[in-house]
Write a sequence for this structure.
């Protein structure tokens, strides 16, 4: 293992390979990209002018579209889901008012369905983030806990929150 030059930001949360490099999601530092195996890093701007309080948490990809989850600790700034169709060079919002929380902690996909873990439970989108549906749980309190991690194994999805682990096979 060899270190790469110091990044201009806070801890790394996730990596995502592209056809021409590597993206990293940073806590408080946005998204950075290297195209030369970590010799140099550059910041990638994200639509909405997100400031340093945005925590980019996890990537996933469907076809040529890369998605990243983000959360924000400042009420008047947005988090949510962003997408890129150009190898992570530019990003745009991938949510609308049907996503009732701006804080996304985790994102995965099963087939063409996006699945995100938020401050208010799990949401799904079957149209690339154009609209979102809350995944209703048997336990009413589920919408009050953050879903911080998601994993998929075939069609089985597992989500973890502060108090519960949820499993879905559909």
């Amino acid at each position: 293992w060899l270190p790469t030059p110091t990044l201009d930001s806070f801890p790394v949360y996730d990596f995502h390979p592209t056809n021409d490099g590597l993206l990293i999601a940073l806590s408080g530092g946005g998204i950075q990209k290297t195209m030369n195996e970590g010799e140099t890093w550059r910041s990638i701007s994200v639509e909405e002018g997100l400031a340093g309080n945005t925590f980019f948490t996890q990537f996933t990809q469907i076809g040529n579209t890369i998605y990243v989850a983000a959360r924000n600790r400042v009420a008047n700034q947005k988090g949510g889901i962003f997408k890129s169709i150009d190898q992570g060079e530019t990003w745009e919002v991938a949510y609308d008012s049907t996503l009732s929380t701006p804080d996304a902690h985790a994102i995965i996909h099963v087939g063409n369905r996006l699945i995100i873990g938020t401050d208010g439970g799990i949401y799904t989108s079957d149209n690339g983030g154009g609209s979102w549906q809350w995944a209703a749980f048997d336990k009413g309190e589920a919408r009050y806990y953050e879903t911080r991690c998601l994993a998929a194994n075939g069609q089985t999805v597992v989500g973890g929150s502060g108090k519960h682990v949820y499993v879905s096979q559909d």
Remarks:
- The mean pLDDT is 80.
